[in-house]
Specification:
By secondary structure, the protein is of the alpha+beta class. It is about 40% helix and about 25% strand. It is built from twelve helices and 14 strands. It has a seven-stranded mixed sheet with strand order 1-2-3-4-5-14-6, with helices on both faces. A seven-stranded mixed sheet has the order 8-9-10-11-12-7-13.
């Protein structure tokens, strides 16, 4: 038997449009992945969105259909506000929605800092550590407060040098809507660095979902008239996120990605952001990260070497936690994940 919240609080089911209004008025600094725009994006690629609101809390839930009428649930970087109390407030209604969707389980990745109290809060509400991470739990967050000189001073000397080197090479960074060019750079990067990338249609949909609120920016870096690097960054409230980035195999000596990130940070500052999340590094303790980054190229180790130079702090969320509704299907899922990880290894 899965424990539920003891007090059944009145919950409203909202449309994505109503959720958008609710977030804007009540939780303007919530996580990007709790926005209606994110729900619309995922809804275009196989997920189904549900939005719940109580007097004190709310959340965006996503469901991926499975064969025979089953589904899996996912609660990304929520609920809002980002507190244990908000989760307790919504939990009975979350359970009802998951059961109505015949969810085998719900994976939740709260926007909480890792630590004993956060983990205990998840266990207390009947969650268990997840077997598969959906979003990277560990990241580098750059504090954007202060002057531009302050930001540059906090960076590693080599990073400052590379930003200036790109400028001396006359690399230019400009805002763009050329999603096709960006997708080609992403394909090149995925092949070179052996990681999966989204389709051009996905990047186009992501750009379209956030453009109405001017909360997305596509920046492309050019050298001698050719695009050689690009990134897509997003803002919500006082935070910005670098979710997608790419570079070509040509002219890597001009260090375009460094200037590109600097311009993205300047864009975020202009939008009133105080943090810039570089989104995804190896899930290892900081002392191990610093001891190993110069030696390793696998997984996210190469990007950590790049991201550490921008002077941010390493931050880890409490990670992925699962709430099980169908133990038999959940066991099948665990076995599938274990086999896939063995195949990758």
């Amino acid at each position: 038997m899965i424990p539920s919240a003891t007090v059944d609080i009145i919950i409203r089911m909202l449309s994505l449009n109503d959720w958008e209004t609710h977030i804007a008025s009540c939780y303007p600094d919530s996580h990007l992945l709790q926005t209606a725009a994110w729900g619309r994006l995922k809804s275009a690629f196989g997920w189904q969105a549900e939005c719940l609101q109580s007097e004190k809390a709310g959340t965006l839930l996503l469901f991926r259909p499975l064969p025979f009428g089953f589904s899996v649930g996912y609660l990304p970087r929520g609920p809002v506000p980002s507190t244990d109390g908000a989760l307790v407030d919504l939990l009975a209604s979350i359970d009802r929605v998951c059961r109505s969707r015949r969810a085998a389980f719900l994976s939740i990745e709260p926007d909480w800092a890792d630590g004993g109290p956060a983990r205990e809060a998840m266990r207390r509400q009947g969650f268990r550590p997840g077997v598969h991470t959906i979003q990277p739990p560990r990241t580098v967050v750059v504090d954007l407060r202060g002057s531009e000189d302050d930001l540059l001073e906090k960076m590693k000397p080599k990073t400052r040098y590379n930003i200036r080197l790109a400028a001396r090479h006359e690399v230019t960074v400009s805002s763009s809507e050329d999603i096709a060019a960006f997708a080609r750079l992403m394909d090149t990067t995925g092949l070179r660095d052996s990681f999966a990338v989204h389709s051009e249609a996905y990047y186009r949909a992501a750009f379209a979902a956030f453009t109405p609120h001017q909360t997305v920016e596509l920046l492309l870096a050019s050298y001698r008239g050719e695009y050689i690097s690009g990134l897509m960054a997003f803002v919500h409230g006082n935070r910005a996120w670098y979710l997608y980035g790419a570079s070509s195999n040509l002219h890597r000596e001009v260090m375009a990605p460094y200037l590109l990130q600097w311009e993205a940070m300047r864009w975020a500052r202009d939008r009133g952001c105080v943090e810039y999340d570089l989104w995804g590094i190896p899930d290892a303790e900081e002392n191990e990260l610093e001891a190993q980054f110069a030696k390793r190229e696998d997984g996210l180790w190469g990007v950590y070497r790049f991201k550490r130079g921008f002077g941010g702090r390493v931050w880890r969320s409490v990670g992925t936690w699962d709430r099980v509704y169908n133990p038999a299907l959940y066991m099948v899922y665990r076995l599938w994940i274990a086999r896939r990880q063995r195949d990758i290894a």
